[in-house]
Amino acid sequence: MKCVLSLVILSVFCLMQFLQLEARPQTPRRDESYPPRDVLAEYRPLRELCKAESGATDLIIEEFSDGDHLTPVEDRALKCYMNCIFHQAQVVDDTGHVHFDKLRLKVPEDLKDVGYNMLAKCENPVGEDLCEKAYWLHKCFKQVDPVHYFLV
Questions:
Q1: Bridge partner residues of 31 (DSSP)
Q2: In CATH, which of 1.10.238.20, 3.40.50.720, 1.20.120.450, 1.10.220.10 is domain 36-144?
Q3: Coiled-coil ranges per the record (predicted)?
Q4: Side-chain-side CA neighbours of residue 85 (13 Å)
Q5: Rounded to a whole number, what is the largest CA-CA distance in the chain?
Q6: What is the mean pLDDT of residues 33-39?
Q7: CA 133 to CA 1: how far, in whole Å?
């Protein structure tokens, strides 16, 4: 009986620790080497084009990219910026269907494990339009791995 009680207490303690871990905000990794400067530089022209097209600002993009994953930013211009990036990178079609095979090819070699993990858990985007679907994907990516997620 004493052994069973100890096991129950241990199980409850482990569950509480797990739930606390899940609910704790995770800080995005931001240092000299992350996000990778070469990736940011490669996508800089698309960023500028899509900011102009969508009306998104650097501030709102950074707020989503670097902010708390538990309370993501809701902004129409940001959502359409994300859609524009996907279209300009040629990883979605005109209906918003994501070509995950093309998206996987865009993931840098040193980020394959991180990128593939995000993609595997976010394969069925939902939304009423293309901007909403793009936002759903980015929100999912960020929730899967808030430490490594970044928005170009």
A1: 34
A2: 1.10.238.20
A3: none
A4: 26
A5: 68
A6: 93
A7: 53
What amino acid is encoded at 121 in this protein? K
Q: What DSSP string runs through 27-63?
A: PPP-BTTBS-HHHHHHHHHHHHHHHHHH---HHHHHH
**SS3 for 98?**
strand
pLDDT for position 140: 94
Half-sphere exposure of 64 (CA within 13 A, CB side): 25
pLDDT digits (tens, 9 = 90+) for 73-98: 889 999 999 999 999 999 998 887 88
* Nearest-angstrom CA–CA distance, 95 and 108: 26
Q: Which residues contact 80 (CB under 8 A, 6 or more apart)?
A: 53, 54, 55, 56, 131, 134
Tokens of 129: 């339009």
